């Protein structure tokens, strides 16, 4: 038995895949702790994992993020991305270091694995001279010697002109990242480390082991990735027992074409995607299942079409095998869960990492990129028609499904973390 500490930022889309790996480690008899926000206590403890809650770090709620980070109010697109990274990911890092230091002094562990936004976990490891593993729960934002920076929704160049474009964009990263680098250096000084002027991705990705959710086909099949990077497929779609009963309308899905409409758990104004999607699906011979993204809130504040069914969180394990097509804002975890079931996608990626997800899905051939997070109903309807009439989208989704499932998911990730726990630690 080994002792593991896993950590992620307290967002549902981050916690769920990390918890799937934690659950697998517990199943193998290991002692596992999970450092994240206290609102996930019930889910974590139900998996047999001990929660180490944020205490010195501000314990925020993703459904009321402005209460803790007021600069996030009303911000979207690139500005939101930078504010989110500075306020949520970087300025909380010294508090994370304090929490992890207290837990380490209480009981050390053999191996630590952190999601790629847990800057505090990386700074902690640096203060105590310990290695860490990265469990990448977002589209792989790892700058390499080729291709454009991730997050821009741009395919890697395939000819001299576009390769030159990619190189120019990579060269701009230090300039664009100055606010993040400055904030990181400040956080480093706060925990007694020297400022190094490193960008976020240069800090948080492990130099020894990166476990990436997804598959090479969703990473543009790039060949410039490091040897210590391992794709592990999809982590969350079928993990864990269902804790709530199926909704009363569940039987309405029998024998019907089912379209899932989801806007994730952050930036969930239904006017952005849910409402235009339901308008586009109104009157069609299908059942549309739409999620609010808020636990316990199973309805919207507007009337929905007669062929729509609504719910706060859908029971994905039971629902996805019945879904024929999904309309999504491009949350990475949900996208992987749907593609793992071979479901073709219409993706409306508007902010944060969502445009990148939309571009990767379109590159794979498994879906349509609407190139906006606020599409018109006509655009959604046209994309739905394309997928329903062109069988290549489903064929590509099935190919991605095979790749994701063959990569092993949480079991493969656990194998690699067990090896990391057994590796000798070189004193720094």
What does this structure look like?
Helix 9 (about 275-280) links the parallel strand 8 (about 260) and strand 9 (about 285-290). This protein has helices at about 10-25, 40-45, 75-90, 95-105, 120-130, 160-175, 180-190, 200-205, 275-280, 315-320, 330-340, 355-365, 375-390, 390-405, 410-420; strands at about 5, 30-35, 50-55, 110-115, 135, 210-215, 230-235, 260, 285-290, 310, 325-330, 345, 365-370. The longest helix has 17 residues, at about 160-175. The chain folds into two domains: about 5-240 and about 405-420, Glycogen Phosphorylase B (Rossmann fold, 3-Layer(aba) Sandwich); about 250-405, Glycogen Phosphorylase B (Rossmann fold, 3-Layer(aba) Sandwich), CATH 3.40.50.2000. The protein is α/β, with parallel strands linked by helices. About 40% of the residues lie in helices and about 15% in strands. Helix 1 (about 10-25) packs across helix 15 (about 410-420), helix 3 packs parallel to helix 7 (about 180-190) and helix 4 crosses helix 5. It contains 15 helices and 13 strands. It has a seven-stranded parallel β-sheet with strand order 3-2-1-4-5-6-7, sandwiched between helices. A six-stranded parallel β-sheet has the order 10-9-8-11-12-13, sandwiched between helices.
């Amino acid at each position: 038995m080994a002792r593991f500490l896993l950590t992620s930022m307290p967002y549902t889309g981050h916690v769920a895949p990390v918890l799937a790996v934690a659950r697998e480690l517990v199943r193998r008899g290991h002692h596992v702790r999970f450092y994240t926000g206290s609102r996930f206590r019930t889910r974590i403890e139900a998996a047999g994992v001990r929660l180490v809650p944020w205490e010195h770090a501000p314990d925020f709620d993703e459904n009321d993020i402005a209460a803790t980070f007021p600069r996030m109010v009303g911000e979207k697109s690139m500005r939101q991305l930078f504010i989110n990274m500075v306020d949520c990911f970087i300025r909380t890092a010294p508090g994370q270091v304090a929490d992890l230091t207290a837990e380490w002094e209480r009981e050390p562990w053999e191996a630590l694995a952190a999601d790629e936004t847990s800057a505090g976990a990386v700074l902690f490891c640096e203060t105590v001279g310990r290695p860490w593993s990265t469990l990448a729960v977002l589209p792989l934002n790892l700058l390499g010697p080729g291709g454009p920076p991730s997050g821009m929704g741009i395919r890697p160049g395939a000819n001299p002109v576009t390769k030159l474009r990619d190189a120019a964009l990579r060269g701009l990263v230090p300039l664009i990242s100055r606010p993040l680098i400055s904030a990181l250096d400040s956080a480093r000084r706060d925990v007694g480390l020297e400022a190094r002027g490193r960008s976020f991705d240069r800090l948080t990705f492990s130099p020894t082991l990166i476990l990436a959710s997804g598959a090479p086909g969703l990473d543009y099949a790039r060949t410039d990735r490091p040897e210590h990077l391992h794709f592990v497929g999809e982590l969350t779609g079928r993990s864990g027992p269902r804790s709530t009963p199926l909704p009363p309308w569940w039987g309405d899905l029998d024998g019907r074409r089912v379209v899932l409409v989801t806007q994730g758990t952050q930036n969930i104004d239904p006017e952005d995607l849910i409402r235009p999607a339901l308008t586009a699906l109104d009157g069609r011979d299908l059942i549309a299942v739409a999620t609010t993204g808020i636990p316990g809130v199973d309805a919207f504040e507007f009337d929905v079409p007669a062929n729509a069914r609504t719910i706060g969180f859908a029971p994905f394990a039971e629902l996805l095998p019945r879904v024929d097509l999904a309309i999504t804002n491009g949350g990475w975890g949900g996208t992987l869960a749907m593609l793992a079931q071979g479901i073709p996608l219409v993706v409306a990626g508007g902010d944060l990492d969502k445009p990148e997800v939309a571009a990767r899905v379109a590159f794979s051939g498994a879906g349509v990129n609407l190139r906006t997070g606020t599409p018109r109903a006509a655009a959604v309807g046209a994309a739905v028609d394309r997928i329903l009439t062109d069988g290549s989208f489903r064929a590509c989704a099935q190919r991605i499904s095979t790749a994701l499932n063959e990569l092993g998911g949480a079991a493969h990730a656990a194998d690699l973390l067990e090896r990391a726990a057994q590796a000798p630690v070189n004193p720094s």
